[in-house]
């Protein structure tokens, strides 16, 4: 069924169709519309799930942890400060191998406080042991949530679906809303091997010392590596049921003959496609690599996609302060020990600043003029750069 | 309860790595014995978690989870709601448990949320009056005057400067329908309270005093005796509150002087040196205030100032 839905509403409908046993959240801008929509669905009887109003994001993450531990399908959503407040539980959920699904409505991190979009929040938790999938538009947000439960429960690894705050969460777009019967066909009921149950008692979350801790981390790591094929397969099987292919690890646009490749994650990719169309008319051989799966990092897919390019510009809304954009670092790591294209880091769009078509075109033209590897903040305001002279 | 081979089964089994005479181990075994097999336990980080689950061994014969230090009340909340949503809740009870630091300090927010939302959970606070797992640091349930490693007596100090935070009152202020205190000095009273609590729908709070051999500094055969003395001196009043009304107070047959309880413990030794008398007097006054609980609910809400 086609409908014109706000991104948050599309996510709430996807979550409803996945039949969660428990939803729990604490309100934070710009995640609020998702959890408001879910609570209204519960109030109207459209969603038969427990709904817990948590006392904090820390509590919300702990509540979904408990629900998942007894064998329930559990969902939460947050942003920015909320995600950071959850962070201790985020690591714990992954270590306990609980397949929770979460939406991160990406937002800048304080200070200075800023409620607008960038991706520093999710990127800062890349090492937590969650699969992190970044979506470009509302249809992809909807489809990815349905895939997320399937991927999480296949692997017993939690999944964070990252969608740009406001740009997607508060924007109306036409989406294809699946039928319940289709989702049921794709996503079987959750029936874990291990759950807390008085009929079959077991101890979960034991104290593990130097004699075995490393092995537990090794197993999670190996399963995360394996997750890449499961994520790709889940997208293929999604297509079999729903008739559209939205998912996988990476996506490419006009990349075959590209000398300059621009790379990014999330909603800015739509703007980048328009920029590339314009640049192609100017005769610049430029293409796009969309990184959809940030954890596990699709090293091979990234490597193969950009290995023929002369120069690569990674446009990203996060920064590892004191180094460069994090995605850029990881792109470089994909060429460990091999000859690599020049890979530059362009920090853009922090704290909700627009990334315009013109700015993207300028990055590509600058890379043609000077392909050398570098780190740059783009489109900074001159009047705030003058320091004491201002 | 016995196994097929006739062995007695403790739902929290011995063979763990707790200290000889550990009050918390006694308490947890009794809580589980009273609760029976149809429970799921959410446990905080702390001594109890560490000494019962050293991988690959576990003392727990019931389904048990440890997530983090500050969240068993929230983990248990999620378990309860999910089990109800899945139709698997009918004959299951849920216990959340933590030490005094996990309850009164770092876990206060999650505990308040669990109370306020009205989850059907028994929360047990094992109060050994300090962060014993990390080496006897002061918590907000450490008593006045006690020496801990972060409230040491010295030229300018007589030990801990504050009184115990009143957790049962805080539970009552949330409208928790069943609030009780108990000690491991009176196992039958403790087990009766666990059983009663688990029959009541809604949040329940049990505050259990559990002496700590190394943290308090006493001989390991004295745990039960000290727990009794805490009650008999009124330094730890033992009572039961149902729907906001005190329904039972465990009165000592003979009220004992506070020194009987304090003197065997090295954490109070400095109070018996020259100049310590005013601090002992302050503890006597606290015991007097605690004894006023006999006069009814009004004093629970507004304890009189000295």
Task: Write a structural description.
The complex is a heterodimer of chains A (390) and B (306). Chain A is an alpha/beta fold and 390 residues long. Chain A has helices at residues 7-17, 32-43, 57-69, 80-95, 120-124, 138-155, 180-186, 213-242, 268-281, 299-306, 326-333, 357-369; strands spanning 2-6, 22-25, 50-53, 74-78, 101-106, 131-134, 159-164, 172-176, 203-204, 250-253, 260-264, 286-291, 293-295, 311-316, 342-347, 375-377. Chain A folds into two domains: 2-242, Rossmann fold (3-Layer(aba) Sandwich); 250-384, Rossmann fold, CATH 3.40.50. Chain A has twelve helices and 16 strands. In chain A, the strands form three sheets. A seven-stranded mixed beta sheet of chain A has the order 3-2-4-5-7-6-13, sandwiched between helices. Chain A has a six-stranded mixed beta sheet with strand order 10-12-11-14-15-16, sandwiched between helices. A two-stranded antiparallel ribbon of chain A has the order 1-8. In chain A, helix 3 runs parallel beside helix 4 (80-95). Chain A starts with a strand and ends in a 13-residue tail after the last strand. The mean pLDDT of chain A is 97. Chain B has one domain (23-301): Thiamin diphosphate (ThDP)-binding fold, Pyr/PP domains (Rossmann fold, 3-Layer(aba) Sandwich). In chain B, strands 2-1-3-4-6-5-7-8 form an eight-stranded mixed beta sheet, sandwiched between helices. The model of chain B is unreliable at 301-306 (pLDDT under 50). Classes of the chains: A alpha/beta (390), B alpha/beta (306). The interface between A and B is large, with 43 and 45 residues. Strand 9 (203-204) of chain A pairs parallel with strand 2 of chain B, so a sheet runs across the interface.
């Amino acid at each position: 069924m086609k409908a014109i839905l706000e991104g948050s509403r599309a996510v709430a409908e996807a979550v409803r169709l996945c039949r969660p046993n428990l939803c729990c959240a604490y309100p934070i801008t710009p995640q609020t519309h998702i959890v408001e929509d879910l609570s209204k669905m519960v109030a109207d009887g459209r969603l038969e799930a427990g709904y817990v109003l948590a006392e904090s994001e820390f509590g919300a993450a702990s509540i979904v942890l408990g629900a998942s531990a007894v064998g329930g399908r559990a969902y939460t959503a947050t942003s920015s400060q909320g995600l950071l407040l959850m962070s201790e539980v985020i690591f714990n959920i992954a270590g306990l191998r609980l397949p929770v699904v979460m939406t991160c409505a990406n937002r800048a991190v304080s200070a200075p406080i800023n409620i607008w979009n960038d991706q520093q929040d999710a990127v800062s938790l890349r090492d937590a042991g969650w699969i992190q999938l970044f979506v470009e538009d509302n249809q992809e947000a909807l489809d990815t949530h349905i895939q997320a439960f399937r991927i999480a429960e296949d692997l017993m690894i939690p999944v964070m679906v990252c969608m740009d705050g406001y740009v997607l969460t508060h924007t109306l777009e036409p989406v294809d809303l699946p039928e319940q019967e289709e989702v049921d066909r794709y996503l079987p009921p959750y029936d874990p091997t291990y759950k807390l149950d008085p009929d079959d008692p077991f101890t979960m979350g034991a104290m593990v010392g130097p004699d075995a801790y490393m092995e537990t981390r090794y197993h999670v790591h190996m399963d995360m590596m394996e997750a890449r094929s499961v994520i790709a397969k889940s997208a293929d099987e999604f297509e079999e049921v729903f008739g559209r292919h939205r998912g996988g690890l990476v996506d490419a646009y006009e990349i075959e003959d590209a000398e300059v490749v621009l790379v990014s994650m999330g909603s800015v990719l739509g703007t980048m496609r328009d920029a590339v169309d314009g640049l192609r008319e100017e005769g610049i051989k430029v293409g796009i690599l969309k990184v959809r799966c940030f954890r596990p990092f699709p090293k091979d897919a990234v490597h193969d996609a950009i290995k023929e390019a002369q120069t690569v510009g990674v446009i990203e809304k996060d920064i590892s302060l004191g180094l460069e954009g994090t995605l850029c670092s990881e792109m470089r790591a994909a060429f460990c020990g091999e000859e690599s294209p020049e890979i530059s880091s362009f920090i853009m769009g922090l704290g909700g600043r627009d990334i315009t078509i013109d700015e993207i075109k300028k990055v590509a033209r600058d890379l043609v003029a000077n392909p050398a590897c570098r780190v740059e903040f783009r489109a900074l305001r001159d009047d705030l750069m003058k320091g004491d002279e201002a | 309860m016995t196994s097929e081979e006739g062995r007695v089964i403790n739902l929290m089994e011995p063979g763990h790595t707790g200290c000889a005479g550990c009050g918390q181990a006694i308490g947890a075994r009794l809580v589980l014995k009273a609760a029976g097999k149809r429970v799921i336990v959410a446990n905080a980080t702390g001594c109890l978690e560490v000494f019962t689950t050293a991988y690959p061994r576990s003392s727990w014969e019931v389904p048990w989870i440890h997530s983090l230090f500050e969240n068993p009340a929230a983990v248990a909340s999620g378990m309860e709601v999910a089990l109800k949503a899945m139709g698997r809740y009918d004959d299951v009870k849920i216990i959340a448990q933590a030490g005094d630091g996990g309850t009164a300090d770092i876990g206060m927010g999650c505990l308040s949320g669990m109370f306020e939302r009205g989850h059907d959970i028994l929360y047990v606070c094992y109060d050994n009056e300090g962060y014993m797992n990390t080496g006897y640091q002061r918590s907000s349930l450490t008593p006045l005057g006690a020496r801990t490693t972060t409230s040491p007596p010295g030229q300018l100090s007589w030990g801990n400067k504050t009184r115990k935070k009143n957790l049962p009152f805080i539970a009552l202020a949330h409208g928790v329908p069943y609030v009780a205190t108990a000690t491991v000095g009176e196992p039958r009273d403790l087990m009766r309270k666990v059983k009663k609590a688990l029959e009541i729908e809604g949040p329940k709070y049990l505050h259990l005093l559990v002496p700590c051999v190394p943290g308090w500094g006493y001989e390991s055969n004295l745990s039960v005796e000290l727990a009794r003395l805490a009650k008999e001196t009124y330094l730890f009043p033992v009572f039961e509150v149902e729907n906001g009304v005190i329904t039972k107070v465990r009165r000592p047959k003979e009220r004992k002087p506070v020194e009987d309880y304090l003197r065997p413990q090295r954490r109070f030794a400095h109070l018996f040196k020259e100049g310590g008398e005013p601090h002992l007097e302050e503890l006597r006054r606290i015991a007097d205030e605690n004894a006023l609980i006999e006069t009814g609910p009004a004093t629970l809400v507004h304890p009189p100032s000295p």
